[in-house]
Design a protein that fits this description.
The chain is mainly alpha-helical and 136 residues long. The chain contains five helices and no strands. The chain has helices at 9-16, 18-27, 37-56, 73-95, 100-135.
Amino acid sequence: MILGARFHWGEFACAFFHKLITFVAVTGSETPPSDDPTGQAEREVARRRDELLAQARGEGPKPGDGGQRLMGLGIQFVVAILLFLYLGMWLDRKLGTAPWFMLVGMLVGAGGGFYSLYRAMVSENKRLDDEERRGK
């Protein structure tokens, strides 16, 4: 026993067979449908056709609008903090002033990261506003 926890076979069986029980309850059949590669391929072609038609009409998501421009901002933020944190630790070891330069480095890195995030978000917002203005 770990911290007074008990193992119940009923809970194990429920968790183990949950998918099968759910499938039977929903479909009324114990055997899942066989994969039909022809039907699946036709559905994929139809889905892609609909996406392309919507894109040609100017509807739906466009390539590059899924936030790809902003995807690296989180990593950039973390790298800025870590870079200045390690720079502060290095200065603390050289000057014997632990932990002051480490703390200052962490704060400078966080401030720089926030500023970079803010600038990127403002420029993205301005770009979206310009696109909206041109589109209307």
